[in-house]
Amino acid sequence: MSDRFMLRALELATLGRGHVSPNPMVGCVITHGAEGGERIIGEGWHQRYGEAHAERNAILSVRPEEAHLLPESTVYVTLEPCSHYGKQPPCADLLIDRCVGRVVCCNDDPNPLVAGQGFQKLRTAGIAVETGVLREQGRELNARFFTFFEQQRPYILLKWAESADGYIAGIEVRTVKISGDLSHRLVHRWRTEEDAIMVGTNTARLDNPRLNVRLVPGRNPTRIVIDKQLKLAGSLNLFDNSQPTLGYNYLKTETLGQTTYIQLQPDKPFLNQLLDDLYGRRIQSVLVEGGTTLINSLLEAGLWDEMRVFRSPMVLDEGVKAPVVRGRLVSREQVGVDELTVYKNSPGN
Fold first, then answer.
1. 255 labelled ligand-binding
2. pTM of the model
3. Among all residues, which ones are annotated catalytic?
4. Nearest to residue 251, comparing CAs of 266, 232, 239?
């Protein structure tokens, strides 16, 4: 029965996607009654960064005439209640103040500011705590959050479109629209859900992308461009100062409007330095829309977590070969005229 209510909490948590980073997505369901006869009396989710957390929203949703039931209720929450003061007061303290009867949770919080302290507070106050319910689903929900704290780097998502015969671009790197309109719209939705979006030098120069969100409502990600020798023209769309942009290079560190150039050391691995810097900037996820050079570099270094590949019915006959897919197949679906396959990185890839 606990799985049923935790699944609902996980479903609620997804409503915060694209709005709560760098916080995790969290959902909460409050039930009352004996096992087998439990009913939901409150539910909520973390809706936006800086605003109330899931537990507080769930408690606020309980009808005043049922507030007296909280000491006999179970709180299902997808992540360990926080134990520290940030933009909001500690959720563990709130649950203690409201004398809830039991707390059931998917995952411990990997953030060192919490890391078991929330559960300890609850247990010390005499509240029963059960953890590990739907643990894997909880980790999948917040894969970016867990990757950030456990691997100390952003979650790396590789995306590209390829023709039916395996080309990512036309001959002489000619720009060709490979994927269909529905796939293009879906990519814009993905952009709203990630902290940053990255391209390499060739893609920036040849495609002159804007890397913003236009086809759906949502926030623009931070743009990342690799330009080791600063050869890209300042007139490119990436440098129009319309949204935060990071330019990684070997020559200078400078900020011009919303564009920040970051100098890296040529005698150290470039990508590792770049990801270390992004970690320091609290960027938890990067959607890579670069060409084969950048994508293959990340693949060879093992610095990737997820791969989303559109395969179009278009045939190019010749051009730039697409990267070779690898990892564990997660899903395959039709998106308009295209087939979308998703892969996750696994040990040994």
1. no
2. 0.92
3. 55
4. 266
